[in-house]
């Protein structure tokens, strides 16, 4: 074979090798490498099964580290990790919500006087409602006196009382019960309002102290 033909064959071989390497580099994103439990360094074009319990490196064609992948987690380890991440997200969200509530609280109640005033106004409003219920109860009590006076004629046999009179008596009894129950509910509302303002005051004292201007020496 002449030297010319040998040169052409050699050049063709080099060109094909270069094309093959280029095609392989395009198809394969990187080379996986690791040291397994026995201390052997392994290399492959995909994740290495023997190294699922340890870190694997993905190399560029140049040999530099492209990225690293951690050990493959078991189902329990994945569940534990997901639970940990969920709790961290919940804690961050809780912290964000708490800061938002604190800002809103400070904006609404910049001073103790403002907070005390709103508490007093809330209690006054409930007091007005309770007084209205008590006034209605007084009216019903007077109506009951009139009804009882009429029922006096039928005390030996109340069943003989006219239907309208018995109906008035039943309605009066029910209405008084409703008003007493309503007053009891409003007494409970007073307790809830005071508890809410007391809880707010505990937090507000902390926020007012944190946001107070520094005292001059």
The low-confidence parts are 1-28
Shape: elongated
From the helix content, strand content and strand pairing, which structural class follows? alpha+beta
- What gyration radius follows from the Cα positions, in whole Å? 43 Å
- Which percent bin holds the helix content? 55-70%
Q: What quaternary form is this?
A: single chain
Mean pLDDT: 86
Beta strand %: 5-15%
Characterization of the model:
The structure is a single chain. Strands 2-1-3-4 form a four-stranded antiparallel sheet, with no helix packed on it. With 217 residues, the chain is of the alpha+beta class. It has helices at residues 3-27, 75-108, 112-151, 163-211, and strands at residues 31-35, 41-44, 56-59, 65-69.
List the helices and strands and how they pair.
Blueprint: H1 3-27, E1 31-35, E2 41-44, E3 56-59, E4 65-69, H2 75-108, H3 112-151, H4 163-211
Antiparallel strand pairs: 1-2, 1-3, 3-4
Helix pairs in contact: 3-4
């Amino acid at each position: 074979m002449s030297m010319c033909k040998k040169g052409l064959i050699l050049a063709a071989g080099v060109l094909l090798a270069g094309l093959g390497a280029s095609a392989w580099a395009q198809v394969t994103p990187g080379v996986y490498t690791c040291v397994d439990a026995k201390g052997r360094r392994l290399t492959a074009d995909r994740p290495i099964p023997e190294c699922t319990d340890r870190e694997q490196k993905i190399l560029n064609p140049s040999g530099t580290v492209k990225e690293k992948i951690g050990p493959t987690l078991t189902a329990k380890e994945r569940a534990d990790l997901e639970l940990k991440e969920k709790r961290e997200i919940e804690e961050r969200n809780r912290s964000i919500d708490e800061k938002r509530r604190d800002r809103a609280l400070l904006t609404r109640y910049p001073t103790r006087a403002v907070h005390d005033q709103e508490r007093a106004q809330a209690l006054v409003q409930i007091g007005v409602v309770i007084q209205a219920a008590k006034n209605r109860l007084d009216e019903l009590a007077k109506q009951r006196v009139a009804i009882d006076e009429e029922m006096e004629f039928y005390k030996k046999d109340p069943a003989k009382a006219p239907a309208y009179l018995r109906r008035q008596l039943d309605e009066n009894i029910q209405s008084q019960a409703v008003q007493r129950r309503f007053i009891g509910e409003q007494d409970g509302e007073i307790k809830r309002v005071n508890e809410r303002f007391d809880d707010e005051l505990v937090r507000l004292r902390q926020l007012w102290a944190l946001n107070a201007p520094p005292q001059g020496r």
